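User: Show me an example of a complex going from sequences to structure tokens.

Assistant: Sure. Here are the input components:
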Amino acid sequence: MSFAVNFADIQSAAKRIADRIHRTPVLRCAHLDALANRQLHFKCENFQRTGSFKFRGACNAVMSLTNDEARNGVVTHSSGNHAQALALAAKMRGITAYVVMPTDSARTKCAAVEGYGGQIIYCEPTLVARETTAREVLDRTRGTFIPPYDHPMVIAGQGTIALELLEQVQSQFHTLDAIIVPLGGGGLISGIAIAARALQPDIRIIGAEPETVCDAAKSKRLGARQPATGAVTIADGLRTALGDLTWPVVRDIVDSVVTVSESEIKSALRLVYERMKLVIEPSSAVGVAAAMGPLRDRKDFQSAGVILCGGNIDLDSLSSLVKASR
Amino acid sequence: MSFAVNFADIQSAAKRIADRIHRTPVLRCAHLDALANRQLHFKCENFQRTGSFKFRGACNAVMSLTNDEARNGVVTHSSGNHAQALALAAKMRGITAYVVMPTDSARTKCAAVEGYGGQIIYCEPTLVARETTAREVLDRTRGTFIPPYDHPMVIAGQGTIALELLEQVQSQFHTLDAIIVPLGGGGLISGIAIAARALQPDIRIIGAEPETVCDAAKSKRLGARQPATGAVTIADGLRTALGDLTWPVVRDIVDSVVTVSESEIKSALRLVYERMKLVIEPSSAVGVAAAMGPLRDRKDFQSAGVILCGGNIDLDSLSSLVKASR
């Protein structure tokens, strides 16, 4: 098997970004272990810089650029965590991040991008407008486009999570039989699968998806990549479909993709708040919900890592989602 | 100086409870460092079993009992974190915890005590009723009374936080010049002061108190122990006054006690939620608020530990407190 990224790329990424990222802690919770019927090790990327794992990939991509490539800055279109991540990575490199965002983006997200020094270019809230505007910005600035997931350096950056997680769990004298990963565009699970399989070939890599946007589960089942369902989910980071680089990885070395309902996601959000005292966004709760729901009775693995991929949710939204879970 | 607890007691406590408590992580936050104008190391006792540091002291007290003493169970009166902590510690020992709670206690707190196997005895919501009822329960059960803070084994248990914190910060190749500790009855700060001073005699130990219930600050200033002010604060864990065992420690080896306003506490709650993705209760926010407010310009120490003492707050309450801080 040959993918766009190999283990050596992930090891290089780890060296490249080591001093710029947080080595996030791995936490345990006896109550959630009981509900999931196995030992869980939670990798807290909600504590990562900019509040999500996206900073690893963005940082690796930006730091990999030659000085010539970097000079004119970097460009992306995103209304989510990748925008903030790219803005901070660019700031660290001393270059400009141009972020195309739809006019209906949440004000807090725009403020975060600007807070990290990013330059926002607003566009109409359609995919066509986003792409057209991004192309205009690229032409004007001659910057480098950094997409949110379908990019070798981005995938390699996300893979560094698995290097840390396996090392941290081992240093606690535990072993990991599986890693449960929220799945949207597939950048996170691809990096993790490539890294973890290299270190521990028999490890299970399991994707977790909201059932309303189950394109990856369907793609696996049919053996053919499916487009985004276009449906909505509270786990807004997971609405995207698999990419050209991530689909082969999901097809070939991800063991399975399970789905959870919106109400399971809300219950998991509430449990993590109440029992772990952690703020996570709904996308993170998808992995937790999978561990307690569809994966609870799986006998083919004992312990599992669960990636808490991000924590960017304002308190009002969290409060109303959790209320709705009662 | 001779206090009710010495360093050896705290070392014994650490051994006694090691397998039963969580060794809680120490987290950093660049944004809060900037606001506090120094390096802060947050000790996350909000992740401790039962959601607060109280489990350390309760566990040490319960595990120190002889079999004869333990046989008839343990008794306390508390509507707060000590109740849950004692219930779980007793459950681990296989004995009963009898907890006297006022009839107007929050339903979630009663549920938590019962969830850990504690037996609740309800009483009228007055101090007299609590004490009378506790005495009746003691007479009836012949159990052992374990108060929330003014008890050598409880203080020794809380002191184990300082052993861990200093070791954890050193293992990160940093040093600590001070520890900032929320101050109510003084059990937490007494244990920490005794342990930290033994390991590092020049360390600053600083108490943080809501200005509405500033009996400890006033006691320090006047050199004489003051009664509880009787006022209210959102940091409900800090309303109690100093005890017979904790006052001498606060008087002699706590460097200073600073106070913060209710609005500073709310802002700190919000910042820790938004920037650290942590759920903390208002008492924990008092230490954070002190670091950013009254201690910000202190030149006599550089880095500081901040004890996040607990995380027991329901999402509705957190949400409305944080709304009020805008």
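The lines above are the inputs; the final block is the predicted structure for all two components together. Chain B has a mean pLDDT of 95.
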